[in-house]
Write a structure and sequence with these properties.
The protein has a domain at 6-21 and 105-336. 51% of the residues lie in helices and 9% in strands. It has helices at 17-25, 27-40, 49-53, 56-59, 65-71, 97-112, 114-127, 135-140, 142-145, 151-154, 189-201, 221-232, 250-266, 274-278, 281-284, 292-296, 331-387; strands at 47-48, 76-81, 90-95, 132-134, 163-166, 175-178, 271-273, 301-304, 311-314. It has a 3-stranded antiparallel β-sheet. The longest helix has 57 residues, at 331-387.
Length: 388
């Protein structure tokens, strides 16, 4: 039996370099996505170069925009245009043919995975206390779950039997409501895994969390015993009614960890910023100290501090090299964008290499001419001496 209160349990945070490296690897990709998204959100999908340059701080761009365009040349085309009719032309940016091709493929991938996106939306609403979530909050996490920019106006109206949007998105007073409960969506990732294992082994498996402490990480005896007893408690589904659970009880802790696990399992990268997850405290019945659950359960989650923000990572989704192995189908969008980014970056590096080689050849030719000139001068001096 668990007697130690949840609030009294303390676990020291420990750096996991492998999972930190997974976040660090996406740093360049996230930078490119921010810049591309900024242009695509413009009314005509074009913008004066100098306007975009002024947004460097907001885009967290560590170098000037021309440098970015040089390093990643396949995203945009530059062309002259006038900001106002009576002004001289200035450089504008618009999506390149390669970027437009990617956008077409992205649209197709989203269309192919519409059922998955619908299921994620319904699941979030089914977990929530009143089966309703602010549209503004859902818009804030659209990239985390892969919803797409227009999911409220494109996807929701197509499924009136499941979802209903009230109010006007963008005004901060609109909400997405669950119209009907779908039992097919009311199974968590952990429950599905237990069912799959039961089918494979022929033995009924109890739903539970996968716990794997990182190498070199040890828990104090008191904490080990608490985790052991806590794991023996019955699994509390995120979709079960939690109104009767005490906020400080081990059962509520089980439910909170289950909800956090389910959120991360639905996210595209199997990781999310802790402050973003915290925006759902009221809807998902989290306590104000919900973030401590990530460190209390270090065998299930990891909290990275990379980039100056706390990011919760689902350990089981990554292998020992920090590679995402539990891949969301919408990861295909990031994969194709990465290919476009890497291809352009490779072209830039090749241009830099050829330029360096040309400069080196020029320096060698200059040095050779100087050497020949010196040798010629020496010969002239020797001839003069002989004449004397």
């Amino acid at each position: 039996m668990i007697r130690t209160p949840v609030s009294s349990l303390k676990v020291a945070w420990r750096k996991d370099r492998v999972l930190d490296s997974a976040i660090e690897r996406d740093k360049r990709l996230d930078l490119c996505l921010r810049v591309v998204r900024e242009v695509l959100l413009e009314p005509r999908r074009c913008i004066p170069l100098r306007y975009l340059e002024k947004r460097r701080d907001r885009l967290r761009l560590p170098f000037r925009l021309p440098t970015f365009l040089s390093r990643y040349p396949l995203f945009f085309d530059s062309y002259p245009d006038r900001i106002r009719p009576n002004q001289p032309p200035v450089p504008f940016l618009r999506p390149s043919p390669r970027l437009n091709l990617f956008l077409h493929r992205e649209s197709q991938i989203r269309s192919d995975n519409e059922a998955l996106t619908l299921a994620k939306l319904c699941k979030l609403l089914m977990i929530s206390k009143h089966k309703v979530i602010s549209a503004e909050k859902l818009l804030n996490v659209k990239r985390d779950f892969g919803f797409g920019d227009d999911f409220l106006v494109r996807l929701v109206p197509k499924h009136p039997h499941l979802l209903r949007l009230t109010g006007n998105p963008g005004e901060g007073k609109s909400f997405l409501e669950l119209v009907s409960w779908n039992e097919d969506f009311a199974k968590s990732a952990i429950e599905k895994r237990a069912e799959e294992e039961s089918e494979l082994t022929g033995i009924k498996m109890r739903p539970n969390f996968s716990v794997k402490l990182p190498k070199g990480f040890y828990l104090r005896k008191e904490m080990r015993e608490w985790v052991r007893d806590w794991l023996e408690l019955p699994y509390v589904s995120p979709y079960a009614d939690a109104s009767g659970l005490s906020q400080a009880s081990p059962e509520m802790e089980k439910r909170t960890v289950g909800v956090l696990h389910e959120m991360l399992s639905m996210s595209v990268l199997r990781r999310m910023a802790v402050p973003v997850m915290g925006k759902f405290c009221e809807e998902f019945r989290f306590s104000n100290a919900f973030g401590n659950a990530f460190t209390r359960h270090s065998g299930i989650f990891y909290v990275s501090l990379k980039g100056g923000i706390k990011t919760a990572v689902l350990r089981e989704a990554y292998d020992g090299e920090g590679v995402l192995v539990d891949r969301d189908p919408l990861m295909e969008i990031r994969d194709q964008f990465t290919e476009l980014m890497d291809e352009g970056h490779k072209e830039w590096k090749e241009r830099v290499r050829l330029k360096r080689e040309a400069v080196q050849r020029e320096l060698e030719m200059v040095a050779k001419r100087n050497a020949e000139t010196c040798e010629h001068d020496v010969d002239d001096d020797e001839n003069e001496v002989e004449k004397l």
